Amino acid sequence: MVEEEADEALVTRCRNGDGGGFATLVGRYERVIFNLAYRMLGDPDAARDVAQAAFLKALENLHRFDSRFRFYSWLYRIAMNEALDVIGHRGRQRELTDVHLADDDPARDAQTADLGERVRGALGALTPDHRAVLVLRHYQDLSYEEIGRVLELPDATVKSRLFEARERLRVRLADPAGEH
């Protein structure tokens, strides 16, 4: 069994001019970063652009990375900022979409698809700040502390913003017409 090289060692390799170290980091995190961008933007092309921009920005600013923190959190913050920039430039929010996996039960598929559409619609109607904490916590499974580092917020703000975002999502989902 081959042991994976730690992110910190890969960063050190990159800083010493070894492009293979960065290629390994991209391979390790490209799917996660794409998924983050996709959940925030709902557009696979825009998500690919954001992921690419995030990795490029990380490479260009690797000298600024503080090794006391996790590379993963630093990269997430860059990707989140890129996604929020795209949202800001759009001037409007787009409904989020998702890929559904096939199931053997068509009735359950229809029910799951309907619920998924309602959740995506409600999530897409939230502010980018509320959407960001929900995506990072529930889709990316980050801790409060990690979310705070990614969004550059104190833990207390993360917790209160997450509480408020969940409440707004609950209200939107409770309204069958989605008029809230």
Task: Explain this structure.
By secondary structure, the protein is an all-alpha fold. The chain folds into two domains: 1-94, Rna Polymerase Sigma Factor, Chain: A (Orthogonal Bundle); 99-180, Arc Repressor Mutant, subunit A (Orthogonal Bundle). The protein is built from eight helices and no strands. The chain has helices at 7-15, 19-41, 44-60, 71-90, 106-125, 128-139, 144-151, 155-174. Helix 2 packs across helix 4. The chain is elongated, with a radius of gyration of 18 Å. The protein starts with 6 loop residues before the first helix and ends in a 6-residue tail after the last helix.
Number of strands: 0
Oligomer: single chain
Q: Quickly give the CATH architecture of the largest domain.
A: Orthogonal Bundle
Provide the CATH top-level class of the largest domain. Answer: Mainly Alpha
Please indicate the percent range of residues in DSSP E strands (runs of 2 or more). under 5%
Radius of gyration: 18 Å
Helix tally equals 8
SSE series = HHHHHHHH
Relevant CATH superfamily of the largest domain: RNA polymerase sigma factor, region 2, helix turn helix motif
Structural class by sheet pairing and helices: mainly alpha
Number of discrete domains? 2
Average pLDDT score: 80
Task: Summarize it.
It contains eight helices and no strands. By secondary structure, it is an all-alpha fold.
Key terms for this structure?
single chain, 0% strand, 2 domains, Arc Repressor Mutant, subunit A, Rna Polymerase Sigma Factor, Chain: A, 180 residues
Layout of SSEs?
Layout: H1 7-15, H2 19-41, H3 44-60, H4 71-90, H5 106-125, H6 128-139, H7 144-151, H8 155-174
